[in-house]
Design brief:
There is one protein chain. This protein is mainly alpha-helical and about 450 residues long. The protein contains 17 helices and no strands. Helix 3 packs across helix 15. The chain is globular.
């Protein structure tokens, strides 16, 4: 059993090494390039993009849906693990909460980037109409950000108090900062009772907000009456897909944190095995909804929907569709059935495949549908019959992904990625239980 001082020393935040500085520099460069491209887009207008009257929602909305889906990892996975009191969750929950906060912040920024006139963003609030799903989207996203921030901050209070003492002599300024953030936490019974109750309430709230956010996001599409989106099952389809994207992202980040921070004794193979089974379950459920979404219309499709399915299954988007489905969904399920597939490095590779597949899946959901307009348009430019993002769109999109990774990186740098006090408490309980076992 590890003693308290060892746990604090292992889990306390550390400075970036050489690789960390290089990583931050690369992310910062990508963000700067994205800002330059976005400023040029604002100056010149949407003509620098390849969006048109057919593809009025391009890669930005795909990226927005991806961020919303990935943010679901904290609202669902963490909330469920907290409410069911699964003890194996301890090393994972904070990383999940950090991913959730970073992704939902970037979702809000991304939807603003998609606007041709970002100076009019306030009109969404000033002239909001409750009949519009977009109004509910702009209400739920800020709400979700606040709840995510609170769910990240409240469990940190005991750890801030620990770090205040830990850095008292070596880094007095940092100790003072952590002391203020701890809100005078002493760990007495009254504080602990209120602390546990607050986290439970926040877990329930974020679970409800997460389901509501995914549902509203799905309704934004299904209420447009467009072929490919006109489905009453779009909300559960989005929710199941969000589980896949979120758990894939969590597995990937957990592996990187474990490797760079040398936390093999805290984030063990047991945790990856558990997450592997959870990811396999999520992929199977999402695969079922994919079958429901495409197979049933295949037999009952009308003329317009038949053209849409043709473009996905054997047409222009067939290669990407089957690549995302087979490699990004079916293959991970098969690999995760085997114990070797649930080992840390294997899980990292599978997580990366799932995340990349989830991003392109959002592209597949949005772009092919827009190529099948509700009303035929005569005499339109040939370029309107297809869509692929321009260099401006790619640079800005990569910058938003880099910004999400930068937020995650900085939060993991200055916050204990694995809860210190809870880990120490669990070690103490385990030690007492071990002593009580008769020899």
């Amino acid at each position: 059993m590890r003693n308290y001082d060892t746990i604090v020393a292992d889990l306390a935040p550390r400075k970036f090494g050489r690789r960390g500085i290089i990583w931050i520099s690369i992310l910062s460069l990508l963000i700067v390039l994205g800002i330059i491209a976005y400023v040029d887009q604002v100056i010149q207008g949407q003509k620098v993009t390849n969006m048109n009257d057919y593809s009025l929602w391009g890669i930005y909305i795909s990226n927005f849906v991806f961020f919303v889906a990935t943010s679901f990892v904290g609202s669902a996975t963490v909330a469920i693990l907290r409410l069911t009191k699964n003890e194996w969750r301890t090393p994972l929950v904070r990383i999940a909460e950090i991913i959730t906060l970073a992704c939902i912040i970037m979702a809000g920024i991304t939807i603003t980037i998609d606007m041709a006139r970002p100076d009019r963003v306030m009109y969404l609030f000033i002239h909001a109409r409750l009949q519009s799903p977009i109004t509910w989207d702009i209400i739920i996203i800020p709400t979700f950000i606040v709840i995510s921030l609170l769910l990240l901050y409240f469990p940190l209070l005991p750890d801030f108090a620990v770090l205040k003492k830990y850095y008292a002599e070596s880094k007095p300024r940092l100790s003072k900062l952590y002391g203020r953030l701890s809100l005078k936490w002493t760990g007495n019974s009254e504080q602990k009772a209120l602390h546990i109750k607050s986290i439970r309430v926040l877990s329930i709230l974020i679970l409800m907000a997460g389901v509501l956010l995914q549902t509203i996001d799905a309704w934004l599409f299904s209420t447009t009456y467009r072929i490919g989106w006109d489905s009453s099952a779009f909300a559960p389809y989005f929710i199941s897909g969000a589980f896949v994207a979120g758990i894939g992202a969590l597995v990937t980040v957990i592996y990187v944190v474990r490797r760079t921070r040398k936390l093999e004794n805290y984030i063990t193979e047991y945790h990856f095995d558990k997450m592997g089974k959870l990811l396999a379950l999520a992929c199977i459920i999402y695969l079922f909804f994919n079958i429901n979404e495409y197979v049933v219309p295949f037999f009952t499709a009308k003329k317009g929907e038949d053209a849409h399915l043709h473009s996905l299954l054997v047409g222009n988007y067939a290669f990407l569709f089957w690549l995302v489905t087979v490699v990004g969904l079916v293959l991970p399920v098969i690999l995760l059935f085997f114990k070797k597939g649930r080992k840390p490095f294997s899980m990292f590779l599978i997580g990366m495949i799932v995340v990349i597949g989830s991003w392109w899946k959002r592209y597949i959901i949005i772009t092919p549908t827009l190529q099948e307009p509700i009303l035929p348009i005569q005499g339109v430019p040939e370029s309107w019959h297809s869509y692929f993002p321009s260099m401006h769109e790619w640079v800005i999109t990569v910058a938003t992904l880099a910004m999400a990774l930068l937020i995650i990186t900085l939060l993991i740098r200055f916050l204990p990625a694995v809860p210190i006090q809870r880990t120490a408490d669990e070690e103490e309980v385990a030690s007492i239980q071990l002593k009580q076992i008769p020899s």
